[in-house]
From TrEMBL:
Annotated source species: Tilletia controversa (dwarf bunt fungus)
Protein name according to UniProt: Integrase catalytic domain-containing protein
Keyword Hydrolase annotated: yes
Source taxonomy: Eukaryota, Fungi, Dikarya, Basidiomycota, Ustilaginomycotina
Function: The aspartyl protease (PR) mediates the proteolytic cleavages of the Gag and Gag-Pol polyproteins after assembly of the VLP.
Record-linked Pfam families: gag_pre-integrs, Pol_BBD, Retrotran_gag_2, SH3_retrovirus
Length: 816
């Protein structure tokens, strides 16, 4: 027996994201038909004091609505919904609406294209046709682009088939959608009844002709034209009804002598302008038009009106034309005698020229240069000759025309047949940049998440966003654009052929790759923790990486043993079977080889002078070091922070999709068999305000937080920070982030503060007074780089104070 939930879900395809509009309409229709929609809209539960039955009905409706919405989504979306932790159907509906209902230019173009298709190719049933248009108008309303009722009525009249031409005349003054719908349905029923009568008449006439053929032919001279529906001529019998158009009896609408003038009036009502030869009118207005070919272009399509946001593709035109100059940039007036010659010999005056940036249905932004502004034109036009002259190719078939870029084959725009014309949907996109078929500009939000994710590539960032595992990151990001930090930190040589070394492992931790890097030599000072070397361990199956830093190479053996012990404890069902290393002596010591042999791990050293055979480890080192370098550049931090940067880079890399895995899968997923808990990524090197413990605060009104440098996550809900005052690394839970702040600025500020403090301490010693003639100097101490430089006399006086252990408290460090 089929349950109620199964019945609700029948005929509803799962929500995948792009099909949200159709999915939402189907779910809404099903819930309304079963009386459960009130749980979603308005979605207000009964108030206090409500009757028990009312509460029970509400609970049932909410449960049914929740189940219908949840169970008609894909597995990935159900995972997102489960994280919401709610059983309220309205909450699910609002979440999905905000997540998947797009208001972008591409979404508007798609809706406009669907609306154009519906208007130009109406369904056979007028009820279905009107319902389809109503649904599209509703979607435009939801994305903030409503169409007023009068305009909808005009477009509906415009879309009716030719059999309704007489009806258009009689209903042209109707501005109510409901009233017009009723009239159209009634007209449809009348047409069907008339068709049935005509069919019977044709059958009787055919029978009569078979027995007694008439000498006159319907298509010859002396006959009358047959009706559009194939009805008999006037000779076949008089028409007893009244004409739709002139209301006179005795003839049908198709035989009415006033049909031509009526059609002109309908065109004026629908399009707002008369379908007359504007080019001829323009020529009469400018009788002194020049005959200079340089001032005359050719346009074939004249007098063909288009809907807003659409252009006619005219293969015979050598000029792009618009009637409205509001979207043009770099506008310049044309010479008074400049005009465009039309195919009928008329001349259409040109008011000026400009550049027009438009967005195609595919989201591509293109610039049409030197577009002619012709106020007398009643439509927009794309010049086909101008496109082919610029290297484009136009291919036609029965229903569409495709314009492609000649060399690359990239689709530039696509036109569909509307009446006798090829129409291209284009959305005006005003911009100050000059581009021709260029990529969309960078999205600031995408650049922000690119920096938070350790400057990973755009495709990887988009894949990470689609997983929904990063709190606050939208599932769809805009274009990344150019990142100068990546260009400075990631430039590399061209690829070399890869060396095949057998099948890749499929079980996590079955085979690991190990590769050290360093030494990292610094010009000034030491790195955090005194580190000079790094060691990267990569799992071949999952691409998961672990990073450790070392002060000496000899520490590598101990790190590998500790890693093996931790992996055996944490992943007992994933024992390490093989390990691939390079020929570094610290990785092939007798003690370490004996350890691997004792634990049943096979060692596979790389051949000499062939680092490509350990390519996975080499690539991991390159990825981590490039991310580290780029993150340090972006944060304006000195190279001494590289140990913290490589740890943060490894953390991010394990949580972004990897190219060698399934689509959208991250190394963390592949290793643990589940995605990580959603968490927010923070920008490495940003300012993090850490709470000062009460025990360390000097008073009730003293500062409660101190600025630190964010070095990456430590563990759940904890951050790794650098205190520039104590110059120590610490882990804190209570942190407020300022991602606009730069670590380099904070370091410079702290160095200046310490410099001033050291100068004040030296002055407190009074080393330049009369009692210390030996140490007398003639200039103030100066700061050179990160050091405080003083004269030789002051140096000797300070050394004497230090030898006598008479330095004031707090000044010894500065003097040393």
């Amino acid at each position: 027996m089929t349950s109620t939930s199964d019945k609700l879900r029948e005929g509803i395809a799962p929500l995948l994201g792009p099909n949200y509009r159709l999915w939402a309409e189907r779910v809404k229709t099903v819930l309304r038909s079963h009386g459960y929609w009130s749980a979603v809209a308005p979605g207000t539960p009964p108030g206090e004091g409500a009757a028990a039955q009312e509460l029970k009905d509400w609970t049932t409706a909410n449960a049914k609505a929740y189940g219908c919405i949840f169970l008609t989504t894909s597995d990935e979306i159900q995972t997102d919904l489960a994280r919401l932790g709610t059983e309220d159907g309205k909450v699910l509906w609002d979440y999905l609406r905000d997540e998947y209902r797009s208001t972008s230019v591409e979404a508007r173009l798609q809706l406009k294209s669907e609306l154009l298709d519906a208007l130009t190719a109406p369904k056979e049933s007028m009820r279905d046709h009107i319902g389809q248009l109503a649904g599209l108008y509703e979607q435009l309303l939801q994305i903030g682009k409503p169409v007023d009722e009068e305009e909808r009525c005009i477009e509906l009249l415009w879309s009716l088939p030719s059999a309704y031409r007489g009806f258009k005349w009689s209903a042209s003054a109707t501005t109510s959608w409901t009233e017009l719908r009723s009239k159209i349905l009634e007209a449809e029923r009348s047409l069907k009844r008339e068709d049935e009568k005509d069919a019977k008449t044709r059958q009787d006439a055919a029978f009569a002709v078979y027995h007694a053929p008439s000498p006159a032919k319907s298509s010859g001279k002396g006959g009358t034209p047959a009706s559009r529906h194939g009805g008999a001529s006037k000779d076949g019998g008089s028409f007893g009804g009244a004409c739709w158009l002139c209301k006179q009896k005795g003839h049908r609408f198709f035989d009415c002598p006033h049909i031509d003038s009526a059609q002109d009036f309908i065109s004026t009502k629908v399009d707002g302008k008369k379908h007359q030869d504007t080019a001829i009118m323009a020529r009469e207005a400018t009788p002194q038009a020049t005959d200079d070919p340089a001032d005359v272009d050719l346009a074939c399509v004249v007098g063909a009106s288009t809907m807003a946001g659409h252009f006619i593709l005219d293969t015979g035109s050598s000029r792009h034309i618009v009637a409205d100059a509001s979207g043009l940039t770099k506008y310049r007036k044309a010479n008074p005698d400049t005009g465009i010659e039309c195919a009928n010999g008329g001349l259409m005056p040109v008011a000026g020229y400009g550049d027009l940036v438009v967005t195609t249905q595919a989201g591509l932004r293109i610039e049409l240069r030197d577009v002619a502004h012709c106020p007398s034109a009643i439509g927009n036009l794309i010049g086909g000759k101008r496109l082919t002259k610029s290297g484009c190719t136009i291919a036609f078939d029965n229903t569409s025309a495709v314009v492609t870029v000649g060399k690359s084959g990239q689709v530039l725009m696509k036109a569909t047949v509307v009446g006798e014309n090829w129409v291209v949907p284009l959305e005006s996109a005003k911009t100050d940049s000059v581009m021709v078929a260029s990529e969309p500009s960078a999205d600031p939000e995408t650049m922000h998440w690119h920096r938070c994710a350790g400057h990973v590539g755009e495709s990887t960032l988009q894949a990470l966003a689609a997983t929904g595992t990063v709190a606050g990151m939208p599932k769809k990001l805009g274009p990344l654009g150019f990142c100068s930090d990546c260009a400075e930190g990631k430039i590399a040589r061209s690829k070399h052929p890869r060396i095949a070394i057998g099948e890749r492992e499929h079980r996590p931790l079955s085979k690991i790759h190990v590769d050290p890097f360093g030494p990292v030599n610094l010009k000034d000072g030491q790195a955090l923790g005194g580190a000079k070397y790094g060691l990267i361990i990569t799992d071949e199956a999952s691409h998961h990486v672990w990073v450790s830093t070392m002060q000496y190479k000899s520490e590598a053996a101990g790190i590998l043993k500790a890693f093996h012990a931790q992996a055996s404890t944490r992943y007992p069902d994933k024992p390490i079977s093989r390990i691939r290393t390079d020929n570094a002596s610290e990785l092939n010591s007798a003690d370490l080889l004996e350890y691997w042999a004792r634990h049943g791990v096979k060692v596979e050293p790389s051949p000499r002078y062939a680092p490509q055979s350990n390519g996975m480890a080499e690539r991991a080192v390159r990825t981590i070091t490039e991310m580290c370098r780029t993150m340090l550049i972006a944060a304006n931090l000195p190279a001494s922070f590289w140990p913290a940067a490589v740890r943060a880079a490894a953390y991010v890399k394990n949580r972004v999709p990897a190219t060698g895995l399934k689509k959208g899968e991250t190394p963390y997923d592949a290793l643990h068999g589940r995605p990580p808990k959603p968490e927010r990524l923070r920008m490495f090197g940003c300012i993090a305000w850490a709470k000062i413990p009460e025990a360390q605060r000097t008073g009730k009104f003293s500062t409660k937080a101190m600025p630190c440098i964010y070095l990456g996550p430590a563990f759940t809900n904890a951050s790794r920070l650098w205190d520039p005052i104590s110059k120590k690394e610490m882990i804190e839970h209570s942190v407020v982030f300022d991602e606009e702040g730069k670590a380099g600025t904070l370091l410079e500020k702290e160095q200046s503060r310490q410099y001033e403090q050291q100068v004040a301490q030296l002055r407190a010693l009074n080393l330049t007074g009369d009692d210390a003639q030996v140490g007398r100097v003639e200039k103030e101490p100066v700061r050179i780089g990160g050091q405080l430089e003083v004269g030789e006399g002051v140096r000797a006086a300070m050394q004497a104070v230090l030898d006598e252990d008479a330095a004031p408290e707090g000044a010894r460090e500065a003097m040393e």
